[in-house]
């Protein structure tokens, strides 16, 4: 893809983050991590527990400062002396794991308004943003006055996401947004994220342990292992290397294994199948071709 | 022999205002009946809010029935005098590994339960040895739990329960926070305990893949059991499961999709081998 400097929203150059530097416990949480993320991309980050995913995303909105290396947001070095980190944190919204544990207001609307209230906006603007954000995650006005604590798990999580959206971020980072949700709840939340990306032209960064989910939704995958970025490519490119993924504690989507097994039996469906729909279509096509040749 | 027997179980979550007047009543369990055989591996599925966790919390008396009864073996969970015996018999593992570990060293954490109920020291360490061995964590016994992965922490939590010599382990989404390897580790451990030690396992999960090897699958909706059968039987009902906000394993889903497209495949295909065996004659 052609690269326009203007399109690059986030650029990491040789990011290193070291815990306990200079002590016997010195450990690299990030090691020479470099990548560029374009505006409007949907990027997935995968890696086993402790691979550095969470450390990495906390760098992206300046919650953690790297030990060495540079990080650019919209072309500006965020480690420059006069850089406004407060503004960065509004532009790069981070939704942590189990964000519903962080709800605290008396009702849903107040909770979502909390972020923009700290942005020196007018009352009217604050309310408008909160309502718009709730609408974006599929919660209508019947929820405004409800206590966050009487909502279901999936609804609470939406309120928490709306709270971040109300800050009008350009980038939304979600750390395991569907953990603990039922399968339908997972699909619904992802559909909303895709809608959101379209409507607001947002860049989305998704940390996930579900290979099925990333195969289905993201444009590009970053694979972390022991603090290093070990693979960077489309889900199809990445999942082709499923043996390598297994060696670093990950796996490919279940479908990949079905395709591989059929290949061993002499049925080659092609090597870029990662979703159920693709597998179905490839099998049906294979049969049609076979019938024609018969 | 039945280990868990719930009869006409009803549970209401009651919200009260400051003056203790009832503000709201939500029925979480609505006339549920179930009989679980000792040694079975039972998976419980259901969407968020279907009553799974509320049911699980009845099994060791964390919640008591609003109406109806729950018996574990011959103990009524509502009987205060036998509560301690009940808790020895039924252990619970929850979602977040970090909330369940208290010891500074793995073996201490596992010893916490038996020590608390006054097991003599010799016997206690024997139990800790056996429990760590059973979950494959012996090599980590002198380590700090902080250094373990999520899957390993859950295995330590399970060892802590094993050291109580339970008859039944209830796991409420034990893998929701784990990476793929961690998930496999925990499920493999639980399956082994079930097969080798004949522990009854009740596993609540949203991951359909984890259910394939269960003896029995129960699907809950609105506080009731709406499906009950072997994985094969339950996963044959793809449309119904989707209506209940659930899913089927990806192998089953692919087989279902192909069947919809006209291929002759049996219902309820669960494993990779089954799918491949059924597909090959069509493809070759």
Q: How do the helices and strands line up, and which of them pair or pack?
A:
The complex is a heterodimer of chains A (294) and B (284).
Chain A: E1 8-19, E2 27-38, E3 42-46, H1 53-60, E4 68-73, E5 76-77, H2 85-91, E6 92-95, H3 108-117, H4 123-136, H5 153-165, E7 171-175, H6 183-200, E8 203-207, H7 211-217, E9 220-225, E10 228-233, H8 235-240, H9 242-247, H10 254-264, H11 276-293
Parallel strand pairs in A: 3-8, 3-9, 6-7, 7-8
Antiparallel strand pairs in A: 1-2, 1-4, 4-5, 9-10
Helix pairs in contact in A: 3-4, 3-5, 4-5
Chain B: E1 2-16, E2 22-37, E3 41-45, H1 52-58, E4 67-72, E5 75-76, H2 83-89, E6 90-93, H3 106-116, H4 121-134, H5 150-162, E7 168-172, H6 180-197, E8 200-204, E9 216-221, E10 224-229, H7 231-235, H8 238-243, H9 250-260, H10 272-283
Parallel strand pairs in B: 3-8, 3-9, 6-7, 7-8
Antiparallel strand pairs in B: 1-2, 1-4, 4-5, 9-10
Helix pairs in contact in B: 3-4, 3-5, 4-5, 5-6
EC number (chain A): 7.-.-.-
Domain ABC transporter (chain A): 10-251
Pfam families (chain A): ABC_tran (PF00005)
Would you tell me which CATH topology of chain B applies? Rossmann fold
Low-confidence stretches of chain A: none
Multimer state: heterodimer
As for the number of domains of chain A, it is: 2
Number of helices of chain B: 10
User: What is the second-level CATH architecture of chain B?
Assistant: 3-Layer(aba) Sandwich
- The proportion of residues forming helix of chain A, as a percent range, comes to 40-55%
Radius of gyration of CA atoms of chain B, rounded to a whole number: 20 Å
Percent in helix of chain B? 25-40%
Q: What is the tally of beta strands of chain B?
A: 10
Strand order of the largest sheet of chain A: 6-7-8-3-9-10
What structural class should be given to the helix and strand makeup of chain A?
A: alpha/beta
Query: N-to-C SSE series of chain A?
Result: EEEHEEHEHHHEHEHEEHHHH
Query: What is the straight-line distance between the termini of chain A?
Result: 42 Å
Biggest sheet of chain B: strands, sense, closure? 6 strands, mixed
User: How many domains make up the coordinates of chain B?
Assistant: 1
Order of helices and strands of chain B: EEEHEEHEHHHEHEEEHHHH
The 3D shape of chain A can be described as globular
Domain ABC transporter (chain A): 10-251
Protein name (chain A): Energy-coupling factor transporter ATP-binding protein EcfA2
Organism (chain A): Lachnoanaerobaculum saburreum DSM 3986
EC number (chain A): 7.-.-.-
